[in-house]
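Bench log, entry 3. Co-assembly request; chain sequences pasted below exactly as received.
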Amino acid sequence: MATVLIYAEHKDGKIKKVTHELIAEAARSGAEPVAFIAGSGIEAFAAELAGMGAKRVLAAQGDAVKFYSNEAYGKLFAAAVKTVNPAIILMGASDQGKDLAPRVAAILGVGLASDCTKVKIEGDKLNATRPIYAGKALADVEFTGGAPYFATVRPNALSIGPTAAGATAAITALPLDLGALKSAVKELVKSATAKLDVTEANIVVSGGRSLKSAENFGIIEKLAASLPNAAVGASRAAVDAGYRPHSDQVGQTGKVVSPTLYIACGISGAIQHLAGMRTSKVIVAINKDPEAPIFQLADYGIVGDLFEVVPALTEEFKKALS
Amino acid sequence: MNIYVCIKQVPATETKIKINAGASGIDAAGIKWIMSPYDELAVEEALRVKEKNAGSTVTVVSAGPQRVHETIRTALAMGCDNAVWIETPEDIDSFQAAKALAGAIRKESTPVDLVFTGKQAVDDDCAQVSQLLATFLEIPYVTAAVSAEYGASSVTLKRETEGGTLEIIELTKPCLIAAQKGLNEPRFASLPNIMKAKKKEIKAYKLADLGVTDADRKIRLKNFQLPPPKQAGKKIPGDAHTQSKELVRLLREEAKVI
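Structure output for the full assembly:
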């Protein structure tokens, strides 16, 4: 049975959903999922990871690793790989996983398939497919350097599995053997309005330059607020005009998203924007121009003035979901 | 200070990607090549640090086929002092690229103070070279930096993560900084500088000079494909109220997503 080592990521006292997705995929394929976790105050996570399907948990715990840093966590995770000797290594392609995985790959001298949208574990092999050119094309990954096969997987690309209450896993404490460090995370500054990230939201409601001002994005905010687990995104034109921060930008030089539902409001659909959202499961476009390219990708299109349609739609969602 | 900036030439972001006949890559015919947008931020940041520190030099390093000379000239025209080109075939992987860049930087005999890169190249989107390069050079790094304050022996950076949380990170120099949008606004090259850049020498290395071989390749992308085409969708008729009501019904009953 192939051993799959999974980097368990947590934020604000919760295991990230992408971690659950990775453990579930390993379990579904008949492999043995082993989780690595680091941080302080992480005692309760071992049982949670076991519930998701982890058979073993390697925990690096202490104040020295209270904050994530690629240098310290890289050393610890590389040590975990050497302890477990897995056939396959998986991380979420989150901001943390994207930062960390290449460091670990460099330390170990193994190849890495970044930001995969399709992974399949077959025996002790990993088949991985990843988007390139921000999703304008896809390619399969051949691991010419051999095992272990290492991949980061995009959140929402895999489904989570059932959780088993009362499941237990063998826990191994990893020594905090960090040596001299050349980097330190001093502080985490939370955004004043703790908001859901577009890459992690189940629903993304995006606005374009036709919103005409930052204030007018209020109607997009209200539409998102009428839906569960929804975040606000923006086109590059809206970000460049200063209506939204760059962290909300969806597209080739912003974030690539694949939510269950993507609602594009007043976005004409430049090729760079379409690349960033085309893998969304269901796409709705609201635009004045019936010829706008966004309608070629939309499952449902509304030709109309967004200043009329968006508030009307907000009311309908509220009614339907109350 | 000795400042290095690593850049990559990529297809312009408006390029419509086509797959080549053997599905082993993209069809490069007619592509307009540009400096990867995040690398422009890296060049700008390197130049700003140089301008605040008299006597500093900025060396631009790029790996790729002959065509990358054009992008190296763009970096020189923006204000870089020296240039290094590593001649490579079209498709090397991130590991080979990072090993080559590290080798070229080491060959430059001057000690490294700062290395700048873009957070990812917008072609293969691997976002690996910055971290691999820093690890090979045995220096710390920050990816996706949105601000940087430079001290005598350290750099304090802000890195943005999901939901707008900022990590405040201190790196001991020498270090590598991978630029994210927000770090600065890249300058345009002036005409006199474009003319001057044309005359500058570009030092050339081959992969073999830097000890990079086929055995350094760890992955290969294959079976290139376009995403499956989407079925034409429905346009919902009526006024805003009717359209909204119908859309909610369709999302609920047909698409089953709410």
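DSSP finds nine helices and 18 strands in chain A. The mean pLDDT of chain A is 96.
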